[in-house]
């Protein structure tokens, strides 16, 4: 393996990192909001809403993300009313199409994670909050949601990692993020292995950092699961 | 021209795309099944390495699963498709072949899927093995079975039983991942939809048709796998 080429390759691929992170963070943020809405619809107890959310989750989870991206980026142009609408300046850009597809996709997976979290909140805690005189909304905001977030965090961390990997598909609709730059570099130099090593390492580093952040958040949110700190014992030798 | 016609995509009339779409569906299933089975073989060895390998072997298996689960599948497909040509083209030139050589797209794609899904298979098999009751394995040895016989008669069937739900998940993943192989030009569902979209200027109809086909395959196989799970756990007490 040619080490000077590895250096060249990393200089060529690193400029793609901001775009990858942008695609990931915007779509995760949008997807999370949508996921919460979907989870609430599924738990709403209102049949039509429940079925709509179920259908949405089923469709988005059982079709490939790449098909969803193509459907939004290439497919929507078939509809003339859309092409002459106000939305077209957004929908003709590959950047926003990729983000919309990623967000819609992650919302389907995320809503199941959030639903699990919401359902894991013990009934007694909700009852206690109601007994204190909290309104339904206050109970949700102060008790149910924080507990659900804590419960759902590890699984949602996995989903975020999957989203980092999923941003690679944006390269297929001309976005020059890490994988897009890697494919371009491979076709220029025919050195697939070296480029793969560099691009793969960048993704591994990003994912490693995200796992650490999630771990840190989990640690912060679960003080009750930590063992008590050891009492400080001042030994005689230290006390000079 | 631009009106929405899903019927032409599935039509078997002379100007319909039905035959092409069904051939593409068969290709998707073929490449996904090949990748899934090859991945299961890799996963079996991976799980074996993680359970009973030496420290070095275990570290290698750990590295494999961590790396392959942490990088995008598309990169792996690029590596196999373009990487194979980087190796094969000079060899071909040695034998007097002209120009650009690479692995057939089917083979490169199936191998890429196998390598990626192998990492997931490893974890599923390892997890399933750990659920098998130690007493059952001990009992097999106590009745005088050799390790190979105990593996074939007791360990493998019991591990498979607990692995079925995990394997079903991997299958759904592999099926969706197979759409990525369209970037190498293999004519599976998504590539065929791209071709159709390009020549009829009806991208929405074709990609919607592709989505419907994936939906059908995944729900049909999901139903079959649920049946398989019920079949393989019929002797299990639910508690």
UniProtKB/TrEMBL annotation, chain A:
Localization: Cell inner membrane; Cell membrane
UniProt domain ABC transmembrane type-1: residue ranges: 17-214
InterPro entries, alphabetized: AA_ABC_transptr_permease_3TM (IPR010065), ArtM/GltK/GlnP/TcyL/YhdX-like (IPR043429), MetI-like (IPR000515), MetI-like_sf (IPR035906)
UniProt source species: Mesorhizobium shangrilense
Name assigned to this protein: ABC transporter permease
Entry's family note: Belongs to the binding-protein-dependent transport system permease family. HisMQ subfamily.
Domain of life: Bacteria
Main location as per UniProt: membrane
Keywords, ordered alphabetically: Cell inner membrane, Cell membrane, Membrane, Transmembrane, Transmembrane helix, Transport
UniProt KW Metal-binding keyword: no
Residues passing through the membrane, by range: 20-41, 53-73, 160-183, 195-217
Membrane topology: Multi-pass membrane protein
Presence of the UniProt keyword Cell membrane in the record: yes
NCBIfam families: HEQRo_perm_3TM
UniProtKB/TrEMBL annotation, chain B:
Transmembrane in keyword set: yes
Keyword field: Cell inner membrane, Cell membrane, Membrane, Transmembrane, Transmembrane helix, Transport
Subcellular location: Cell inner membrane; Cell membrane
Membrane topology according to the record: Multi-pass membrane protein
Domain ABC transmembrane type-1, residue spans: 25-225
Main location group: membrane
Transmembrane annotation, as ranges: 20-49, 70-88, 100-120, 206-228
Protein family: Belongs to the binding-protein-dependent transport system permease family. HisMQ subfamily.
NCBIfam families: HEQRo_perm_3TM (TIGR01726)
Name this protein carries in UniProt: ABC transporter permease subunit
Organism annotation: Mesorhizobium shangrilense
Lineage: Bacteria, Pseudomonadati, Pseudomonadota, Alphaproteobacteria, Hyphomicrobiales
